[in-house]
Amino acid sequence: MPDTTITLINGKKVIVQNPPEEVLVLIQNYYKEIGLQQVYKQVGDQNE
Question: Which of 19, 30, 32, 46 qualifies as a cystine partner to 37, CB 3.0-4.6 A?
Fold first, then answer.
């Protein structure tokens, strides 16, 4: 199984064994849990 590399905003890299799709779902769930999902969507919309 290939590893997934996550690059943080400070430039550090974290390598995980989870596939990219699973990492994305976990991040989205975390944002929902802490109330940042709407902010995440708004920022994403501005970048498109």
Answer: 32
The range of the structural domain enclosing residue 48 comes to 19-48
5-30 pLDDT tens trace: 999 999 999 999 999 999 989 988 88
Q: Go through 13-27 and write b for each residue having 16 or more CB atoms within 10 A of its CB, e for each that does not.
A: eeeeeeeeeeeeeee
Considering its fold, how many domains does the chain have in total? 1
Domain assignment present for residue 7? The answer is no
Query: pTM above the 0.85 mark?
Result: no
Judge whether 11 lies within some domain: no
Q: Cα–Cα distances in Å, from 11 out to 1, 15, 21, 35, 46?
A: 25, 13, 21, 25, 22
